[in-house]
Design a protein that fits this description.
The protein has 234 residues and is of the alpha/beta class. It folds into two domains: 3-66, Ribosomal Protein L25, Chain P (Beta Barrel); 76-232, Alpha/beta knot, CATH 3.40.1280. Helices cover 31% and strands 25% of the residues. The chain has helices at 18-27, 86-99, 119-132, 147-153, 173-176, 195-203, 218-232; strands spanning 3-5, 13-15, 35-39, 45-52, 59-66, 76-80, 103-108, 140-141, 145-146, 158-162, 171-172, 183-187, 207-210. The strands form two sheets. Strands 6, 7, 8, 9, 10, 11, 12 and 13 form an eight-stranded parallel beta sheet that branches. A five-stranded mixed beta sheet has the order 1-3-4-5-2. Strand 4 (45-52) and strand 5 form a beta hairpin. Helix 2 packs parallel to helix 7 (218-232). The two termini are 24 Å apart.
């Protein structure tokens, strides 16, 4: 069944926005009395019944709710450098949401070629991927932050920094991360983290890890990190 997104649901009724209404009524050809699933992006799953099939503002009657649907016992935060090619960063966002990421922070490193992302476009990709994968919690997109500022305040669970330096001992993610633990993972830019950044992260308690023997693109490394945590938690 199709999943729709309506933030801030209160009471026994809600309305789909224009885009969701058009998709529901025009594309899917649903009509009065049809059942749909709705999430508020806060972990709640609602069963709705179409009351007024208006393609510009479809009105829904709430018939039931499953609170904290699909709730997990861990959180995953990836801080990843923006990419020169925005489509590659958007691909990372889409696939990481499908794998169950909770938080994304654009991380501005010494070798980062971009310092901004198109937040509105990224938010739309997050919502679309959340609905497609039937997740009920909308991942949080943070403002871009400087690398050193981020590592100074990052405290979520097991903190890891994958990198390509052969001068520093690296462990596989599976040897430092265990099921049910929160995780924060740093993903560097094209050109990797600088030795100074790696040392600074290690001084702040981040653990040096690798994502396998291959040298990965930034967006691929981000997905590999997400999948490592996802796989361990299955």
């Amino acid at each position: 069944m199709q999943l729709f997104y309506v933030p801030d649901i209160t009471g026994s009724r809600c309305e789909l926005d224009r885009n969701e209404s058009r998709h529901c009524i025009r594309s899917l050809r649903l009509t009065r009395g049809d059942k749909i699933l709705i999430t508020d992006g806060r972990g709640n799953l609602y069963e709705g019944i179409i009351d007024d099939p208006d393609p510009s503002m479809c009105r829904i009657k709430i018939a039931g709710i499953i609170p904290e649907s699909g709730k997990r016992d861990y959180r995953l935060h990836i801080a990843i450098s923006p990419l020169k090619n925005p489509e590659r960063f958007e691909w990372f966002v889409e696939k990481s949401v499908e794998l169950g990421i909770d938080e994304i922070t654009p991380l501005i490193c010494h070798n980062s070629e971009k310092t901004r992302v198109k937040a509105e476009r990224i938010e739309n990709i997050i919502i679309s991927a959340m609905k497609q994968s039937l997740h009920t919690t909308k991942p949080v997109l943070r403002e871009p932050v400087d690398f050193h500022d981020f590592i100074a305040c990052a405290t979520d669970g097991i903190r890891m920094i994958p990198h390509c330096s052969k001068e520093i001992c690296r462990c596989p993610v599976s040897s430092v991360y265990s099921k049910g633990r929160d995780a924060t993972i740093l993903i560097g830019p094209e050109g990797d983290f600088t030795p100074e950044e790696i040392s600074a992260a290690l001084d702040k308690g981040f653990i040096s890890v690798h994502l396998g023997s291959a040298r990965l693109r930034t967006e691929t490394a981000g997905i590999a990190a997400c999948h490592s945590v996802y796989f361990i938690n299955q």
